[in-house]
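Bump. Still looking for VOC domain-containing protein structure tokens.
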Amino acid sequence: MEQISNNQIIKLGVVVDNLEEAFQYYVELFKLDPAKMRAPKPRSPESESSQAAPAPEGGNTPFVWHRGEYRKARCRTAIIPLEPIYLELIEPYDEASPWTEFREKHGPGIHFMTFHIDGFEEHIQLMESKGMPAFFKQEKGKERYAYFDSASKLGTTIEFKEIDKK
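Sorry for the wait, here they are.
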């Protein structure tokens, strides 16, 4: 593989300090219908647990891998549809995650841009061959995500998203 299989950006990931507040600003600014968006869920005591995540056992076992460790990398999100792409607003928990790292280093802002791809492992190898290794991978059953250490070369983090076609 010599190039990314798709050159259409589908999503921008935006780290925010307060999810509800940012969500409301987007609703008002663009006169969006909140019923057509995935709105933020309130925090609950159960969601505050920060136990380590188990390593995957193979197949489509859900997992999160961040900087060499399997863990829970949690955040709260809201989806803002702005055609032809969408924004994912992300409020990170105060624990190790790519979103917390970004917020601590840069404050709120655009963290990554996402491309749908086919061939997850091949794309990981491509990016590594270009000097941009993966530092975050997540499996969610039929969906896989990876963030790459691309900011120093491209000005932003690249995220690949693959969805099983079955």
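Residues 47-60 have pLDDT under 50 and may be disordered.

Edit: fixed formatting.
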